[in-house]
Design brief:
single chain, alpha/beta, Rossmann fold, Immunoglobulin-like, 4 domains, 6-stranded antiparallel β-sheet, 26% strand, globular
């Protein structure tokens, strides 16, 4: 900080809390006495053993005390330190035993994480949904996410299509900043692969598809900008049973996020979300201030215990008109050793009174029973009538000009390789609207709309992996673009007669039937760019059939491995990053002679598994710092950069280039 001065660093970052064994502090006895009102020493055995009738009570008091100390003396202190240095804090709190929402919320920028093959639509409680909930309840404008870690393993097989799907799943969990994991900086002389980090997607200039990344980067930028506008609209809250976890676990390396996921179950939370109920997780702190939030429904799942103060706050919420639903059972116990019986008795009385009065409902189970009861009393603000399992949404609301007008922004994403029509029901919505594709920036046509007593039913066609932004605002004057339902027809088969040039011109071949290029001996382990060229003729009669008012022509590829730049008659016609492999060429084709050129880039994995490839050997001189001999550094380098397991995972080169049918289609 002293070297670069204030204002030159945006944030200091705390990665996920991976500190096993740090479950005690020297001040615990004094702080325990101050906060819990009794001495811990006589009961300390309960932290790992059993003391009849009080084990869970003492464990709760201990874990609660450690949780408070951790938030106050680490997370909040880190943010204070950052502010002293003129910058913000960005914190991944998962891994802590503390109140997880307070831990994330102590940061200026709470950050979640996504790793492994998470390019799918699914609620991720452990590493994302808790972080975004903290951002919402503690008023953080930016909610960040470490993205693409181990998106695929081995390295060099990740596609931009994988990344687009993965980033959309992150958006649908409530994040609005993407931290790429990552760009591996490497020496200039580090060869074709550089020095790729062992856990990351290789998002840098060494990758074969790097020149297409800016398009994905622009897409990410656009969506994040819209998702930072105004406030996320959420009516449903799910109470976190943290008290049960503190009470039921001995002194250990307690990972609160994982314990919560196990208790609530990922399946139940995903089912709730996909049933149309965007929700936040809430803690005791938020429930105590529920009148400050817009939630109208509170859900309790697997919650046996709660502080008496929380039960009282829930009663006040219900008396103001809020709905409480308990799945399977309701809370009957309080927490902590002091006055336990008395406090538990009042918790039971409050919950039973709420149940008898009808202000609290009891669902038979946490799946269909819960959502069925919810739908009977709270209709979803957005319903996807056909593809709710693969298409999700986020709803933002912002002030739009003077007069108290509001603009409602919806982000939808189809995280699926399947295309299809979807009818979206917007509850009580009657205002004008417009639809855009944030990948292209272009307006998207709708297939139809219907206003009912419940609101608007909007029908749109989603392409594979397509996202849409739908904006509602009173001062939109133009009618939405309407897309005709006309069927596409194949009019020109261009599958034969392509010439492929690769390796700087040293490989050339003309194909009768297209085959992927890794089948060529010279290109088996080639990773890079191959250029496909073809000339074809369109007669005047064919052109008359093709051209016409409101008709569009598309170049369509059946298979592509992996990205491509398209040129028609020497002019760029776009780039292909993902399915569907098609580009509009209406204005570029002409009657008579035409020329197509496709510059195709495959994946880096083929070169990586080349049996002739040798990892570089590094000298091992003596150095003047630990470990003094660089052999240890080289062993670590080999483990991290050239892991042997990766070669075992991919035995054969992946398909590359073009294969299958190539055609011009008209719509």
């Amino acid at each position: 900080m002293e070297a670069v001065k204030k204002g030159c660093i945006q944030s200091f970052f705390c990665d996920s809390i991976e500190t096993p064994g740090h479950n005690w502090t020297e001040i615990i006895f004094d702080e325990f006495r101050k906060r819990r009102g009794y001495e811990l020493r006589p009961y300390v055995y309960a932290l790992w053993g059993e003391i009849r009738g009080m084990t869970d009570l003492v464990r709760y008091d201990f874990q609660k005390t450690m949780a408070e100390l951790t938030v106050e003396n680490f997370f909040e202190e880190l943010t204070k330190w950052c502010h002293e240095k003129g910058c913000t804090s960005r914190i991944q709190a998962h891994g802590t035993w503390g109140d997880i929402l307070q831990a994330y919320g102590a940061a200026d920028i709470p950050e979640g994480e996504t790793f492994s093959a998470f390019d799918r639509y699914e609620v991720n409680t452990v590493h994302r949904k808790l972080a975004s909930s903290a951002g919402h309840v503690y008023g953080k404008r930016i909610i960040s996410n470490e993205s693409f870690t181990w998106l695929r393993f081995p390295r060099f097989v990740v596609t931009l299509e994988n990344m687009k799907a993965a980033v959309d799943s992150i958006f649908l969990d409530g994040m609005n900043q993407i931290v790429n994991h990552g760009y591996s900086y490497s020496p200039r002389d580090s060869g074709q692969f550089g020095q790729p980090f062992y856990a990351s997607t290789n998002i840098n200039h060494k990758n074969t598809w790097w020149k297409h990344y800016p398009r994905l980067g622009l897409y990410i930028n656009r969506v994040c900008e819209f998702l930072r506008r105004g406030k996320t609209v959420i009516r449903t809250a799910v109470y976190l049973p943290q008290s049960d976890i503190w009470a039921e676990n001995p002194i250990s390396d307690l990972h609160m996020c994982m314990k919560l996921d196990e208790r609530l179950t990922a399946q139940a939370m995903d089912h709730l979300h996909k049933s149309g109920y965007w929700f936040d997780y809430v803690n005791d702190d938020v429930v105590s201030r529920f009148e400050s939030y817009d939630y109208d429904t509170l859900i309790l799942v697997a919650c046996d215990r709660m502080p008496l103060e929380t039960a009282r706050a829930m009663r006040e919420f219900a008396e103001r008109g809020g709905l409480i639903i308990c799945a399977e059972d309701y809370s009957r116990r309080s927490c902590g050793l002091l006055n336990y019986e008395e406090r538990s008795r009042e918790v039971r009385e409050i919950m039973e009174q709420l149940l008898e009065s009808g202000r609290m409902l009891l669902a038979s189970d946490r799946m269909e029973g819960l959502t069925g009861l919810l739908k009977a009393h709270r209709e979803p603000e957005v319903q996807l009538l056909h593809h709710g399992g693969t298409i999700g949404y986020v709803h933002q609301r912002e002030e739009a000009g003077t007069g108290g007008q509001q603009r409602d922004i919806y982000f939808f994403s189809n995280i699926s390789q399947e295309a299809g029509e979807e009818t979206i029901r917007f509850l009580k919505e009657t205002r004008p609207f417009c639809v855009f594709d944030p990948m292209t920036g272009a307006e998207k046509g709708i297939l139809g709309r219907n206003y009912t007593e419940k609101g608007l039913e909007l029908t749109v066609a989603f392409e594979p992996f397509q996202s849409l932004l739908i904006l509602f605002e009173d001062n939109i004057s133009e009618e939405p673009l309407v897309e005709p339902r006309g069927q596409e027809q194949s009019v020109l088969d261009l599958s034969e007669g392509w010439q492929l040039t690769a390796r700087g011109g040293s490989f050339q071949k003309t194909y009768g039937t297209l085959n992927s290029w890794e089948q060529e001996t010279e290109l088996r382990y080639f990773s890079g760019e191959g250029i496909y060229q073809k000339e074809f003729w369109i007669s005047e009669e064919e052109w008359a059939a093709l051209a016409g008012e409101n008709r569009k022509l598309y170049l369509c590829l059946e298979h592509l491995g992996e990205t491509a730049d398209i040129f028609v008659n020497g002019k760029p016609a776009g780039e292909l990053l993902m399915r569907p492999y098609r580009a509009e060429v209406t204005s570029l084709l002409r009657p008579g002679g035409n020329r197509l050129e496709l510059r195709v880039q495959n994946l880096l994995i083929n070169a990586a598994i080349d049996p002739e490839r040798r990892e570089p050997l590094y000298p091992e001189p003596l150095i003047d710092r630990w470990p003094y001999v660089t052999a240890a550094l080289n062993r670590e380098r080999k483990k991290r950069l050239y892991h042997w397991r990766e070669r075992e995972m991919v035995k054969e080169p992946l398909r590359s280039g073009l294969w299958g049918r190539v055609e011009i289609r008209v719509r």
